[in-house]
Structures are given as C-alpha cells and as structure tokens.
C-alpha cells in the first residue's frame, strides 16, 4: 500500500502501463508546487499532453483538491497527488521530468532577487529529494530568481554526486513567448510565425532579446529596438503591477512552462531538431557561450537533455552593450546561489 493520495482509476493504470511497455512512450512528470498560481494551470495543461503517462502533483498545501479536480479530465495521464514533505520522495521516485514552480512570487515593487531568501531554501530542499529519488530526471526550474536557483540546484546535485549539467534547465521560455508576442505586434505578424532568441538570464537587464536575429528576418528602427527591449525585460513587472499584489504571471507562465516541458519530452523521445532557449550550465556541452558558469542561450534538446549549446551568433552594437550589462549582473546572481549551498 502507498501512502500518497490515490485518486487514479484502475483503467488508467492499465493504460499507463501499456504506454510504458508499448511503442508510444509515456513519460512520468512531477510538478513541485502544483497547487500554486502557476502549478494549477500547468498541471491542467500537462494532463492534456499526450506524451505524459503519469503526472505527480506535489505541494505543501491543497494538492488533494487540485489532484482530484484534474484527475477527472478524460485524457490519458494518470494523476496522483502528494501532500507535504513526508510524501516528497514518493512524488519523485521514477520521474523522467520534474518541473519546479514552488515558492513565493513577486509583489509590486519587488525584484526577483527579493524572493531569494524564501525560494533558495525551498529549491534546495526539493533538489535534495530529486538527487535521492530520481537523479536521472530532467529538471525544469521555474522558481525565481532563476539566475540563482539554477546554480543552487547544481550545487545540491554536485554535493550529492548526481550533477549532470545536461539535465538541469532554468525556464526562460516566458521571455521568448513575450518577445514573440511583442515583436509580432510591432511587425503586424502572427506571433506563431515569429521566433526571437532571448539569451542571458531571467531578470531585468539579464534578459537579452537578440532582435537582430529575429525570424523571419526583419529590421527595426532605433525607437522600436528600445521599446521592445524594455518591454521584454519588464514584461514580468508589467503583470505584477497589473495584478496589484495578487502575484505575478501565472497563466502565460504555465503556457510557457508546458511549451518548454513538451520540448524536453520530445527531445527525450528522440525527436530531431528540438531547439529552445534555456538557462543552462556552461558545462552542459564543450562550448562556453560566455565565460560565465551559467547562461541562457539556444540549446538543442535530445535524449540526454541538453545535447548542444549554440553560440550567440553575430550581435549588433546595442546587443553587445546589453550583453556586458547582463554578464555583470548574472555573475553576482550566480555567485549568490553557489555560496548559499556552500554555507
Ligand atoms: P504561488 O504562491 O501562487 O504558488 C507557489 C506554490 O508553491 C504554492 O502552492 C506553495 O504552497 C508552493 N510551495 C511553497 N513551498 C513549497 C515547498 N517547500 N514545496 C513544494 N511546494 C511549495 O506562486 P506562483 O505564482 O505559482 O509562482 C511560483 C514561482 O514561479 C515564484 O517563485 C515566481 O517568482 C516564479 N515565476 C517564474 C517565472 C519564470 O519565468 N521562470 C515566471 C513567473 C513566476
């Protein structure tokens, strides 16, 4: 007998087993922080993803209700709920992909770094569980400040002897989603046709959209470049202010997290040409995009996680100035994360 909340139907269990053994793969995915503003819509969208056979929903509050609710959706994935620290290990055992949106969000006037004191400890504890129970899982870190929480996760895994730089990814997809939307608006295009690489990190000036590399190829006036760069860098703050104390981006973030998780799962399945932006360890591949130990750039996802990190490509003078600013802030955010675990 298991002590987690059993809300699955036997028919679903049978189907999950068939997928695991049969031709069409089904992946096991855990969401840590699943009852939160991001966690709930993320859980719903993952339940709709045909690549997912088992979905574990973990939180320190309210996961039974969210699990019961989501489990009634007539899609393939079996849903199981886990509540509180004592059920963390059961939630993690056997997982292929772990997504972490646990922690507190910003309120107006706060920077992402203001969340460090609370979220650093949460991410550390959750990653200790991952190192113990599913050391080979791909890990997607959403909890802010991503520029520090990803280095924290890496240090925890290093201490446990399980660190694989290819399997740890900070989720910067929302910056790309916003950039695609805002650029499409300016160009009068359908956002689905636009692809904007966003590199660096996930906070303020570390968010560096490469507008010179937008696909389809296009050009912008200086005014448009300044407007777009600022709007993309401050997109999160725009939502925090509009929500006026009720949190930060949750719905667009859940959409972005699922887009990114789906890319990771397609990579795991062996699909070719899966390329997205993510904040990864520079050790993931031999190529150092910058001298920093972590950096967000375009990566190719495959059976082992990050299979390739792409070079930044030619930058214009505006982007080169932005890169220097980004690197300075990134270096200190990374160091803050590393020394938190060293303590
Ligand atoms: P929320 O407060 O609505 O939800 C957070 C959830 O985490 C809650 O259900 C809470 O019970 C849970 N939680 C707290 N401690 C936990 C622990 N030790 N173990 C498991 N679960 C725990 O916050 P929201 O809006 O969902 O945001 C979550 C995080 O995502 C924040 O840190 C926020 O800054 C970040 N974020 C990241 C973005 C990105 O682009 N990477 C974009 C938007 C938000």
TrEMBL record:
It catalyses: (S)-malate + NAD(+) = oxaloacetate + NADH + H(+). Residues 28-170 form the Lactate/malate dehydrogenase N-terminal domain. Keywords: Glyoxylate bypass, NAD, Oxidoreductase, Peroxisome, Tricarboxylic acid cycle. CDD domains: MDH_glyoxysomal_mitochondrial. Pfam families: Ldh_1_C, Ldh_1_N. InterPro entries: L-lactate/malate_DH, Lactate/malate_DH_C, Lactate/malate_DH_N, Lactate_DH/Glyco_Ohase_4_C, Malate_DH_AS, Malate_DH_type1, NAD(P)-bd_dom_sf. It comes from the Eukaryota. Its main location: other. It is an enzyme of class 1 (oxidoreductase). Its EC number is 1.1.1.37. It is found in: Peroxisome. Residues 172-340 form the Lactate/malate dehydrogenase C-terminal domain. PANTHER family: MALATE AND LACTATE DEHYDROGENASE (PTHR11540), MALATE DEHYDROGENASE 1, PEROXISOMAL (PTHR11540:SF71). Homodimer. Belongs to the LDH/MDH superfamily. MDH type 1 family. NCBIfam families: MDH_euk_gproteo. This is Malate dehydrogenase. It comes from Penstemon davidsonii. The lineage of its organism: Eukaryota, Viridiplantae, Streptophyta, Embryophyta, Tracheophyta.
């Amino acid at each position: 007998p298991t002590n987690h909340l059993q809300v699955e139907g036997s028919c679903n269990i049978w189907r999950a087993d068939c997928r695991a053994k049969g031709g069409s793969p089904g992946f096991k995915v855990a969401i840590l922080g699943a009852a939160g503003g991001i966690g709930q819509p993320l859980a719903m969208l993952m339940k709709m993803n045909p690549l997912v056979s088992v979905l574990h929903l973990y939180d320190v509050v309210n996961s039974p209700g969210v699990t019961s609710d989501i489990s009634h959706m007539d899609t393939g994935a079996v849903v199981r709920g886990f509540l509180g620290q004592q059920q963390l290990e059961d939630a993690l055992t056997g997982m292929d992909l772990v997504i972490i949106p646990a922690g507190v969000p910003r309120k107006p006037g706060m920077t992402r770094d203001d969340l460090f004191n609370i979220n650093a400890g949460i991410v550390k504890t959750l990653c200790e569980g991952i190192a113990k129970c599913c050391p080979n899982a791909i890990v997607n870190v959403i909890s802010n400040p991503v520029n520090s929480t990803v280095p924290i996760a890496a240090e925890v895994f290093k201490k446990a002897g399980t660190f694989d730089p290819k399997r740890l990814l900070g989720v910067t997809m929302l910056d790309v989603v916003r950039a695609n939307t805002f650029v499409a608006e300016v160009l009068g295009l359908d956002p689905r046709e636009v692809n904007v690489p966003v590199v660096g990190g996930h906070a303020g000036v570390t968010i560096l959209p490469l507008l010179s590399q937008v696909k389809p190829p296009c050009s912008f006036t200086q005014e448009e470049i300044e407007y777009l760069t600022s709007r993309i860098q401050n997109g999160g703050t725009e939502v925090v202010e509009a929500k006026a104390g009720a949190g930060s981006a949750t719905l667009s973030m859940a959409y972005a997290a699922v887009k990114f998780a789906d890319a990771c799962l397609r990579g795991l399945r062996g699909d070719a040409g899966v390329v997205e932006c993510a904040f990864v360890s520079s050790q993931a591949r031999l190529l150092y995009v910058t001298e920093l130990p972590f950096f967000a750039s375009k990566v190719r996802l495959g059976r082992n996680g990050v299979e390739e990190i792409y070079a930044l490509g030619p930058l214009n003078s505006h982007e080169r100035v932005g890169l220097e600013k980004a690197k300075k802030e990134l270096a200190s955010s990374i160091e803050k994360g590393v020394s938190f675990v060293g303590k």
